Structure to design on (701 residues):
């Protein structure tokens, strides 16, 4: 990089209006620093935004001492400055801003850099979120929680993010215009925990109807979210029009629609034929209503036919062209963002789209690199993404080596020229912070990291001081096991805890598409837990350490439970019933210990989830019951008996949290053992799950 830079607000010849605007922009970063350090950064950290036209193909930041012996962070845009701030907090101040610890005060003494620290990246797009995240993690977030998340995004260099909040207001206004009644509208829009699958055209109406105050609340929240995002240099990606319409649209209007079938037992919304001129009219109304509410976006997320959907009889080239043209009529400068997942994006649909106007999210690059399997995306731009989590399930999990090696392989491949950046596309967040730290640091590294050295620096930042041999050895055991899952490991996401599974003697998973067989020795997580206990007294004042201590012990207990059920099955096959009875009680005792452990902090309790749902509903008692029902059903049966059992969705979003273990998972296992060993009643697990849901609905948790 050319070290002769133009320091915008330090240069006397810059016109005063530009000087004023730049200061206003940088003020957002000063405010960010103030918020995340609880007001302790004032007068101690300075920022400079640098106009660097010669290096427009990269983002960069530099950290150094200024003439007043303060920290000076320079960068070429707001995102770069934010990354520089996060780097300084972690590696000079021993502060790791994490989901369990989103603000921390600066230490009284700061280690100032002795030589400037300079980092750059050619991966200029850093994407965040999955449709599912809005349901598995975010459905009940309030303004404060959203603002903290946006600060976290900025610190990690995210500069484009999916944003679905408040889109139900767009639909409500649109449907009113074309003659739908309030009742018909609320029967189409789902409850707060099911918005993701409605937005992806998988279902309609389930979990509703929403109370009127919800629409006003979400509209206001969305506007605040967008303002904060844009102020920190993050581009919101709003949901575009994909052709979705009500199942009764043809009957009501006479216009042709396509029935695209079912998704996991749910009837999908209909698809409005793009060969009919009404498609353009509805699309234009949709974008018009969105513009009135939230303005134009530079990016629109559009994912027709997600996870199936019957496309027979459709001209897919016309589908792609009409969707694209509608977006461009709304904003000629906008780009279409689409997920690469299962069969999507369908080649015939995206082939007509001009290169440069489509960004493809290679959704699960760390395990299933579709970019490599299909040979790129036909010249379209794409992002290398880490999916990591399914259903918001709890479990220590990652593919560190695969993530690193895959990204470098992608950059150096023949399709590297259209690789625009990276992304995190988890179905659920607030877990496995180490993987997100690594992912969002990778673009700023000059070469593949030495993981052992990186780990030591990460832990020093996370726990606020140098770590001892016990902590290092514990984490090395984890890095070599749970955080390096083999790519051929069956199932989705983490090794699923048998504690959360519907009981049997040989359960293979907790969820239909998951897997519970350990690919590592359970001694590794037990060893890590023991080592953490040895050094507990040194780090127990640190919130990040306490979170990790609980999570590691939880994982060790879950792994022990997985092994216990195997032992029980072997004893049962040998008909050693007395031993089975003794060991089954040990298994049940372990569940209660796990529940007690996870009730220590709010982040690992089901109460946090249920209380957020209650608060989001406002003061109306019936709304509170509806929202609690959404929250409770999603993490247990998911839907009705057809969706749960025939559709396979039961326990897809299981949570190994304090409270639900004692109140649901323990009773399920006890009923199983009672039936199998003591002649008890045959358990009806769906009925037991609904009983727990109803208990939550009535506020008896």
């Amino acid at each position: 990089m050319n070290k002769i830079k133009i320091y915008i607000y330090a240069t006397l010849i810059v016109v005063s209006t530009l000087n004023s605007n730049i200061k206003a922009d940088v003020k957002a970063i000063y405010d960010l620093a103030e918020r995340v350090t609880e007001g302790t950064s004032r007068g101690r950290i300075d920022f400079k935004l640098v106009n660097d036209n010669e290096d427009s193909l990269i983002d960069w930041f530099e950290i150094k001492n200024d003439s007043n012996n303060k920290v000076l962070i320079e960068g070429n845009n707001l995102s770069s400055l934010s990354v520089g701030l996060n780097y300084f907090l972690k590696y000079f101040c021993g502060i790791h801003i994490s989901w369990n610890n989103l603000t921390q005060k600066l230490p009284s003494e700061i280690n100032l850099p002795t030589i400037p620290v300079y980092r750059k990246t050619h991966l200029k797009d850093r994407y965040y979120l999955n449709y599912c995240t809005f349901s598995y993690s975010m459905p009940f977030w309030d303004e404060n929680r959203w603002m903290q998340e946006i600060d976290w995004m900025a610190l990690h260099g995210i500069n484009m993010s999916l944003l679905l909040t408040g889109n139900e207001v767009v639909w409500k206004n649109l449907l009113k215009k074309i003659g739908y009644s309030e009742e018909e509208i609320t029967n189409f829009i789902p409850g707060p925990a099911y918005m993701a699958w409605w937005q992806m055209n998988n279902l309609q109406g389930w979990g509703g109807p929403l109370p009127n105050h919800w629409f006003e609340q979400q509209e206001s929240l969305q506007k605040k979210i967008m303002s904060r995002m844009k102020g920190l240099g993050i581009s919101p990606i709003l949901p575009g029009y994909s052709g979705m319409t009500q199942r009764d649209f043809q009957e009501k209007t006479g216009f042709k629609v396509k029935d695209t079938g079912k998704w996991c037992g749910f009837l999908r919304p209909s698809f409005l034929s793009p060969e009919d001129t009404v498609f353009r009219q509805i699309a234009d109304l949709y974008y018009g209503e969105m513009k009135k509410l939230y303005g134009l976006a530079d990016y629109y997320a559009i994912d027709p036919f997600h996870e199936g959907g019957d496309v027979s009889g459709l001209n897919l080239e016309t589908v792609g062209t009409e969707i694209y043209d509608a977006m461009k009529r709304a904003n000629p400068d906008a780009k279409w963002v689409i997920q690469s997942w299962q069969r999507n994006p369908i080649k015939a649909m995206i082939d007509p789209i001009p290169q440069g106007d489509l960004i493809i999210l290679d959704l699960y690059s760390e395990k299933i690199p579709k970019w490599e399997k299909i040979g790129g995306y036909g010249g379209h731009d794409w992002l290398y993404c880490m999916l990591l989590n399914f259903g918001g399930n709890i479990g220590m999990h990652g593919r560190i080596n695969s993530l690193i090696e895959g990204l470098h392989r992608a950059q150096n491949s023949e399709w590297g020229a259209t690789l625009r950046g990276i992304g995190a596309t988890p179905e659920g967040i607030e877990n496995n912070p180490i993987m997100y730290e690594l992912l969002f640091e990778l673009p700023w590294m000059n070469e593949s990291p030495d993981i052992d050295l990186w780990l030591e620096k990460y832990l020093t930042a996370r726990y606020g001081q140098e770590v001892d041999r016990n902590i290092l050895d514990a984490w090395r055991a984890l890095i070599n096991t749970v955080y390096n899952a083999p790519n051929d490991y069956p199932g989705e996401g983490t090794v699923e805890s048998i504690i959360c599974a519907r009981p049997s003697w040989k359960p293979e998973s907790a969820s239909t598409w998951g897997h519970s067989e350990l690919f590592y020795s359970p001694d590794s997580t037990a060893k890590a837990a023991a080592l953490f206990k040895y050094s507990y007294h040194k780090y127990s004042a640190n919130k990040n350490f306490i979170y990790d201590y609980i999570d590691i012990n939880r994982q060790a207990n879950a792994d022990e439970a997985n092994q216990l059920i195997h032992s029980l099955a072997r004893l049962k096959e040998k008909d050693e019933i007395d031993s089975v009875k003794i060991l089954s009680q040990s298994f049940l005792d372990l569940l209660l210990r796990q529940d007690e452990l996870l009730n220590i902090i709010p982040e690992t309790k089901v109460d946090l989830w249920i209380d957020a749902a209650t608060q989001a509903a406002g003061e109306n008692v019936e709304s509170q019951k509806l929202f609690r029902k959404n929250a409770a059903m999603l993490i247990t049966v998911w839907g009705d008996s057809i969706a749960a059992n025939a559709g396979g969705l039961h326990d897809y979003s299981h949570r190994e949290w304090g409270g639900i273990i004692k109140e649901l998972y323990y009773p399920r296992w006890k009923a199983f053992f009672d039936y199998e060993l003591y002649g008890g009643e045959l358990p009806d697990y769906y009925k037991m799950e609904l009983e727990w849901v109803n208990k939550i609905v009535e506020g008896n948790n």
